[in-house]
Amino acid sequence: MKAFEAVQHYFHKAAHELGMESPMRKLLITPERELTVQIPLRRDDGTLETLVGYRVQHNSARGPMKGGLRYHHEVDLDEVRGLASLMTWKTAVVNIPYGGAKGGVTVNARSLSKNEKERVTRKLVDAIHQVIGPDSDIPAPDMGTGHEEMAWIMNQYAKYQGFNPGVVTGKPVEHYGIPGREEATGRGVGLLTLKTLGRLGRKSAGATVALQGFGNVGTHTAKFLSEADCKIVAISDQTGAWRNPKGIDIKAALRHVNQNNGQLEGFEGGERIPGDELLELGVDVLIPAALGGVINESNVAQVKAPVIIEAANAPITPEADEKLQERGVIILPDILANAGGVTVSYFEWAQNRQFYRWTLDRVRGELDRTLTHAFEEVWDRSIERTLGLRTTTFMVGIERVARAAELAGVA
Ligand SMILES: NC(=O)C1=CN([C@@H]2O[C@H](COP(=O)(O)OP(=O)(O)OC[C@H]3O[C@@H](n4cnc5c(N)ncnc54)[C@H](O)[C@@H]3O)[C@@H](O)[C@H]2O)C=CC1
Ligand SMILES: O=C(O)CCC(=O)C(=O)O
């Protein structure tokens, strides 16, 4: 199943439980607008390449559309469409006043120098500035992008539409960003991992964790969980995977990536194992925090963890999801598990609109409250309806979007 088809699969399952009729389903699942743009890139060596970029605005019934910007060689329109629709349900699940969108450029982010990245980002804004804006569509970081790209977006957008820091979130803290956005997705994943273990009556202290991906989300998840005394026994990134049954020294791993251009390559705090093996370890919790579709029909039978927290977007294919559910594996779905990032993006946008600075304590407090509320709502309803967590989470999101569309008279 391709990315958008996979989201539709989950959407229809939840819509069925809600008794939603087919015309309303069609309205809610169809993207409002899709833009494909050409991005000419002059490489540092003078050669010319033409890249392709996308922005999909999925649904605006609940407010301006919100979602990250991904630089990755596998990005295509279908993937961006799938990710944009996930954003619609995600913002609704945590009940922040946004719709959903997503963007991407098909390029290997690691192949770009800093200057090339800046040129790609500014060219992208040249192509999409008319459809983004603080009241319409607000980009943010995703795989392969971070605070630098967000600062360039704000600056380039201002050249066309005037200064407005609320056009993009995830900016540097010294440049209209908010303290706590960089850690927010990983902090949320960590917090909800502890809450999941708590609801299952399992101890978090000493719980073993395998974590795939050691970028923004992976590193902050690792930091939070190691500080909460979980035992992270395996970590990985695109350069390889490392395992240490006694527990990886996360501080050492963080130091290593900070000094090594963000990569784990050369890390000596564990035995090197094949990347695929990490997903199959007998751990208490498995956290995929990198690519989509990594747990699929080819490896699902080997996955042993009883709890999976989806830090990445769509890391489990629907086929694998069904098999895991049959085996009673508890899966906290992406649209709840990784919603901490967009929640703090909302705080940043609100701060930008008021020109009033929030403190880190306030950001963390409000983030924890927002995620806890959403988690409790989903968990209680899942027990009440004897439905899986993914279907229940989609139901909560879809209901809010449908209600907003009805109240606004969209149809
Ligand atoms: N950055 C954010 O605030 C949010 C990110 N997400 C999702 O979290 C996931 C990770 O995003 P970020 O951490 O922001 O990206 P990032 O670009 O900062 O880090 C990605 C990490 O994944 C690793 N990776 C890539 N291919 C791999 C492979 N085959 N095996 C193991 N590791 C591999 C990279 O080496 C890197 O460590 C994505 O699915 C993204 O959509 C979700 C919500 C918010
Ligand atoms: O912070 C944001 O606005 C969006 C983050 C994002 O792209 C995601 O949650 O997948």
UniProtKB/TrEMBL annotation:
Feature type site, description Important for catalysis: 142
InterPro entries referenced in this protein's UniProt entry, alphabetically: Aminoacid_DH-like_N_sf, Glu/Leu/Phe/Val/Trp_DH, Glu/Leu/Phe/Val/Trp_DH_C, Glu/Leu/Phe/Val/Trp_DH_dimer, Glu_DH, NAD(P)-bd_dom_sf, NAD_bind_Glu_DH
Keyword Methyltransferase in record: no
Active site (catalytic residues): 102 (proton donor)
Residues that bind substrate: 66, 90, 345
PANTHER family: GLUTAMATE DEHYDROGENASE, NAD-SPECIFIC GLUTAMATE DEHYDROGENASE
Name of the protein in question: Glutamate dehydrogenase
Organism: Botrimarina mediterranea
Classification of source organism: Bacteria, Pseudomonadati, Planctomycetota, Planctomycetia, Pirellulales
Gene name, Swiss-Prot/TrEMBL: gdhA
